[in-house]
């Protein structure tokens, strides 16, 4: 089965890498890898970690790129690849503009689409933006729907998707952790090697979403600053997104604080190993809501809604919103109430058993 595997950003690459590795070791697949380069540097880091060499690289990234530019560039580039390769299937993951463009390009060429991580819904078309719209549109164009959880499956059934086309697989991000987290891992950045993860309570903070830029992000940074000032045992690591607005907003709260460590964005390998060592995570990321529970780390989600409610329902994550006081109180609880911390840290991860890639490949060849 010739499968054109398409991705364009770091999160997509992380979640597609286990599928690519599974296909490469089997004789019933001929994988062809195409990257759009919607992200550039961060994407290349993941390709290197998993030793994946793309067959095609559209390299569309440019500074200040618009959603229209990404869509049209990926659509035109992928059309040419599909016409040349004539794959049996185009496989995409998630909800980026690359994913939507890939599904549309395949539809125009009458090639079946397999959608990894299908069925996620926040039920707010503009949050996250544009991801919620992308994933809804891709569901209309897909032949195979690979859902991480039962709730994702139920979302698709409510939208009228044929149940025979839906496969419950778990999330491939759990598969990916098997390749990366190492007990004896040494960070290139000496700061991260020097932190006392055993005796200090290190908090990992990430925030980058468009909808949080502005007052919500100020609230997040203010709450974190209060937590550090009031708890001498706490240190914070904040790998700062390259978006200059994020850096501008964080500087007044974090600059020159000896227990708040602002770093450059981390590669996937050091990031997952850092996450495995910290006390808990504060994030507005989607993927981290899945990864951290697999490592036994509580997650405080600084968003108003999440398309990953399974973690909240299982108790591994808590949706705290973006108000300063709500985040402050949630952090204080995890820092001062061991029972509350243990309840989150030991909750069962709802995102799978680490064998999603095999289940996806089996489904593809079983129903070609």
TrEMBL record:
Domain UDP-N-acetylglucosamine 2-epimerase: 21-364
EC numbers for this chain: 5.1.3.14
TM regions (residue ranges): none
SUPFAM superfamilies cross-referenced by the UniProt entry: UDP-Glycosyltransferase/glycogen phosphorylase
Recorded family membership: Belongs to the UDP-N-acetylglucosamine 2-epimerase family.
NCBIfam families recorded: wecB (TIGR00236)
Protein name: UDP-N-acetylglucosamine 2-epimerase (non-hydrolyzing)
Gene from which the chain derives: mnaA
């Amino acid at each position: 089965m010739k499968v054109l595997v398409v991705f364009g950003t770091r999160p997509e690459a992380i979640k597609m890498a286990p599928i690519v590795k599974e296909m490469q070791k089997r004789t019933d697949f001929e994988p062809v890898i195409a990257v759009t380069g919607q992200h550039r540097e961060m994407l290349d880091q993941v390709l290197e970690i998993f030793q994946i060499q793309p067959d095609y690289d559209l390299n569309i990234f440019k500074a200040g790129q618009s959603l229209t530019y990404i869509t049209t560039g990926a659509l035109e580039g992928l059309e040419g690849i599909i016409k040349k390769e004539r794959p049996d299937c185009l496989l995409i993951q998630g909800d980026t503009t690359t994913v939507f463009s890939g599904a549309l390009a395949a539809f125009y060429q009458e090639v079946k689409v397999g959608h990894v991580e299908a069925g996620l819904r926040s039920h707010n078309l503009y949050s996250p933006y544009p991801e919620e719209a992308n994933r809804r549109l891709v569901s209309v164009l897909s032949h195979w729907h690979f859902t991480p959880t039962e709730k994702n499956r139920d979302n698709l059934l409510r939208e009228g998707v044929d149940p025979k086309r839906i496969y419950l697989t778990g999330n491939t991000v759990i598969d990916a952790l098997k390749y990366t987290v190492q007990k004896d891992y040494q960070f290139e950045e000496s700061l991260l090697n020097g932190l006392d993860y055993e005796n200090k309570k290190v908090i990992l903070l990430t925030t980058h979403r468009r909808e949080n830029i502005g007052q919500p992000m100020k609230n997040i940074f203010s709450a974190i600053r209060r937590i550090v000032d009031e708890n001498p045992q706490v240190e914070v690591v904040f790998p700062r997104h390259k978006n200059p607005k994020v850096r501008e907003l964080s500087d007044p709260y974090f600059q020159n604080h000896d227990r708040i460590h602002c770093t450059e964005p981390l590669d996937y390998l050091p990031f997952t190993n850092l996450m495995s060592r910290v006390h808990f995570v504060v994030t507005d990321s989607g993927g981290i809501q899945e990864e951290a529970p697999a490592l036994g780390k509580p997650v405080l989600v600084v968003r108003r809604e999440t398309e990953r409610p399974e973690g909240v329902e299982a108790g591994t994550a808590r949706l705290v919103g973006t108000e300063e006081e709500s985040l402050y109180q949630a952090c204080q609880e995890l820092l001062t109430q061991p029972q509350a911390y243990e309840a989150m840290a030991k909750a069962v991860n709802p995102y799978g058993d680490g064998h999603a890639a095999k289940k996806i490949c089996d489904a593809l060849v079983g129903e070609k």
